[in-house]
Amino acid sequence: MKTLADLITKEMEQAFQAAEYDAKFAKVTVSNRPDLCEYQCNGAMAAAKTYRKAPFMIANEVVEKLQDSDCFDMAEAVNPGFINLKIKPSFVAGFLNDMAEDAALGVEKESEPKTILIDYGGPNVAKPLHVGHLRSAIIGESVKRIMRFKGNNVTGDIHLGDWGYQMGLIITELEKRQPDLPYFDESFEGEYPEAAPFTIGELEEIYPTASAYAKENEEYREKALHATFLLQNGHKGYRAIWRHIMDVSVTDLKKNYKNLNVEFDLWKGEADAQKYIPGMVEALKEKGYAHYDEGALVVDVAEESDKKEVPPCMILKSDGAALYDTTDLATLVEREELYQPDEVIYVVDKRQELHFVQVFRCAKKCGIVRPETDLEFLGFGTMNGKDGKPFKTREGGVMRLENLIREIDDEMYKKIMDNRTVEEEEARDTAKTVGLAAIKYGDLSNQASKDYVFDVERFTSFEGNTGPYILYTIVRIKSILNKYQQEGGSVEGLRLCEATNEFEKALMLETAKFNEMIDIVYTEIAPHKICAYIYDVANIFNKFYHGTKILTEEDEAKKGGYIALLKLTKEVLEICIDLLGFEAPERM
Ligand code: ARG
Question: What residue ranges define each of the domains in the chain, with the CATH number in brackets?
Answer without folding.
Answer: 4-87 (3.30.1360.70), 165-259 (no CATH), 404-580 (1.10.730.10)
